[in-house]
Amino acid sequence: MNLVLQGVGDCQARLERIAALTAPTNLTWVGERALRCEGIAFSPALRQTIEVAAQAAQLDTTYSIGYHKMSEFKLVAMDMDSTLITIECIDEIADMQGLKPQVSEITEAAMRGELDFSESLQRRVALLEGLDASALERVYEERLQLSPGAAEMLQAVQAAGLKTLLVSGGFTFFTDRLKQRLGIDYSNANQLEIIDGRLTGKVIGNIVDAEEKKRTVERVCAQLGILPSQAIVMGDGANDLKMMGISGMSVAFRAKPVVREQANVALNFVGLDGILPLLT
User: Fold this and answer.
1) Which cofactors are reported in the record for this sequence (predicted)?
2) Largest distance between two CA atoms of the chain
3) pLDDT class for 113, splitting at 50, 70, 90?
4) pTM
């Protein structure tokens, strides 16, 4: 087994200290803030010891058998809200109505997998009825920020020739703009109904739920003539699990516990560019 340890800031001493617990046959730096422990004797007890120590040291841990190469993959698929970007757009739109607490509560429950996503989205969007559509532009301009490491990750995978997909239970108003701004190849999201410059509280067409996210990844893979196992899929909420489940590498980014437990890779401290040291 190999183990990659990663951190942020001045973390080299912390990385070396936790790496020593693994009794590796070899240590390789894969960047300034990432250390690969090679040939470790894996056991559940050792893993628990390392996980507890790494968490306390604010380091991310990723185990693998052998090595992954960037060339193994042809597609990177990303959730948008709280993954590619730092905010939940619908919560910020609701804030314009003075309804952020109510909407955020529903969003959190849906992301934890406690509510059906489609039902939760319809409930949240209904609360936005009557809001001036200019609120969407305000959220995009004033509140939307890329997650740490997002630009660096995209630049690296695009330079390596991988295609990119933004698939979101959020809204086309934001995915369309991010697609153009970041040079993303494909996108799929929900379309808010707007009549006479105001939100009607409804979504046009089918809702992009967990099943549709999975189908989107499958469709794009088919268009590219590749297998889903050649895709890296990133997400943070329960509605991302189905598309993550068909991927060759599933990445839980600052994710809910249910997602972290099922993903191949969990990035809790480092940015989205934390996938790069995992791809030799």
Assistant:
1) Mg(2+)
2) 67
3) confident
4) 0.94
The secondary element (H helix, E strand) that includes residue 111 is helix 100-111
**Catalytic-role residue among 10, 60, 79, 116:** 79
Catalytic annotation, pick one of 60, 81, 240, 273: 81
- What is the CATH code for 1-67? 3.30.70.260
Half-sphere exposure of 146 (CA within 13 A, CB side): 16
> What would the pLDDT profile of 226-269 be if each residue is shown by its tens digit?
999 999 999 999 999 999 999 999 999 999 999 999 999 999 99
136 half-sphere exposure, CB direction, 13 A CA radius: 21
Radius of gyration for the alpha carbons in the chain, expressed in angstroms and rounded: 20
Tens digits of residue pLDDT in 1-36: 999 999 999 999 999 999 999 998 999 999 999 999
List of E strands, 45-160: 60-64, 75-78
Measure the N-to-C terminal CA separation of the chain; round to a whole number of Å: 15
Q: Would residue 81 show up in a list of annotated catalytic residues for this protein?
A: yes
Please report, for the chain, the start and end positions of each structural domain, with discontinuous segments joined by +.
1-67
Nearest to 226 by CA among 162, 153, 160: 162
